[in-house]
Design goal:
- The chain is an alpha+beta fold.
- The protein has one domain.
- The chain is 33% helix and 31% strand.
């Protein structure tokens, strides 16, 4: 291997290791099984918005909790929710977009 290829591989490995510690879980446009935090927010938003037409737009986790953006209805109006590791939720509110 040339020195350039070796340097590129080393740089890629460093970036990959650094990204492994990130806690962001963005799911925009990807259909996956919702995490427990996402499921809790889907249920909370569904109750608050009085509809079952809800889907996860994105989520970002941290040690304190997981912020989940939920799309509601056919236009995917954005709602925000925070879910905690004990299954509780807070700050369920319409974001005013969508």
């Amino acid at each position: 291997m040339t020195k350039i290829k070796t340097a590129r591989m080393a740089a890629f490995a460093i970036v990959a290791i650094g990204l492994a510690g990130c806690v962001e879980d963005t799911t925009i446009g990807v259909e996956t099984t919702p995490t427990p935090a996402q499921q809790a927010c889907l249920a909370a938003v569904s109750r608050t918005a009085n509809t079952t037409d809800v889907s996860v737009l994105s989520s970002m986790g941290s040690e304190a909790g997981t912020q989940v953006k939920v799309g509601v209805g056919p236009d995917r109006a954005q709602w925000n929710c925070i879910a905690y590791s004990d299954g509780t939720t807070a700050a369920v509110q319409f974001d005013g977009e969508g």
